[in-house]
C-alpha cells in the first residue's frame, strides 16, 4: 500500500477570495419565467471565465438533484470550466457525500485535477437538501452514519493508491487500485459545516479544512464552532497550519450600499420566498427586514466594495479564516448584474482584503 502525504497549507499572501453557485433556476420575480438549464450552465461557464481573468482565486459549484437547479453533475461542469480557465481553483460546494460513492467521487475529482493541471478541490457535506438519498437508494435514517463512514473512506482514498477497507454501509474493498491519481500530491478536502458543534468537531478530528456557511445573523455566534474545530484538530494531533477555515455566504456588490440593496432586494426576496414555497411554507421578506439583514454587523454580504471589505476583515478578526467565497447569482439575478459584481469583487474587494491579511 503506497501512502502519499503532503501539505495543503496555504501561502501567506492573504485571504483567498472566491465565488460559488448552485445554478438555481428560480423564476424571475417580475416575469415569473425561469431561464433554461442550458442558458444557466452557459452563464455559469461565463462567470467562471470572467472570475479567472479578473483574478478571483476559487470557483465552486454546488449539487442539487431537482428540476429547479441546473447542476447535478458537479465534476462535469467543473471539467468544462477547467478547459476554459487557466488559474482559478475549482471546488465542489458541496459534494453530498452521504448519498455518493466515495470511490467515484475521488475518481471524478482526481480526473478533474489532471484536466485542470492541479486545481481541483472537494468540499464534502451531509447535504441540506435530501432529495439525493431516495434517488440513489440511501436511507435517510442513516444520514449521519453514512457521512461518518464515507468521509473517512474518502480521506483514505486520497492517501493511498491501493486500499483494503471494511465498513458497515458499503461493500468492502480488497487491495483495490484507486485510479487515476491526482496531479496534486493529494486533493484538498474540506468538510462543509452549517451550525452544529458535532460537525465542527468532526472536521477538526479528521484534519480536513472546514467550510463554514454563514448565511445571515451575527457572525460572532459562529466563533465557538471555529474554536471547537481547531481544538478538536489539535487534540487529534493535526498541524494547526493545516486546519484551514473558509467562510461562505450570500452576497452582492454594487457601487454604493444603497444601490446594492435596491438592486438585490427583489432577487433575494424571490430566492427566500420561492425556497420556502417549495417547502410548503408561505413567506414574504419585507424591505425593512431585508435592510436589517444586510446591516453592517450582519453576516449577509450586501453593499459597496468598502462595506464588503469591512465585513470580511471583521470576520477575519473573529475566525482567522483563509478563504471567503460568496454566492451572488441567486433568485433570478440577471447575468449582467452578476458580471458587474464579479468585477467589483475582483478589482476592489480582493486586493484590499489580501493586503490587509497578508503576512508578507
TrEMBL record:
Q: What is this protein called?
A: Luciferase
A cellular component term from Gene Ontology for this protein is: cytosol
- One of its Pfam families is Bac_luciferase
Q: Does the keyword Disulfide bond apply?
A: no
Q: Which InterPro entries match?
A: Bact_Lucif_Oxidored (IPR050766), Luciferase-like_dom (IPR011251), Luciferase-like_sf (IPR036661)
Gene Ontology molecular function, alphabetical: monooxygenase activity; oxidoreductase activity, acting on paired donors, with incorporation or reduction of molecular oxygen
- Where is the Luciferase-like domain positioned along the sequence? 28-320
Keywords, A to Z?
Answer: Monooxygenase, Oxidoreductase
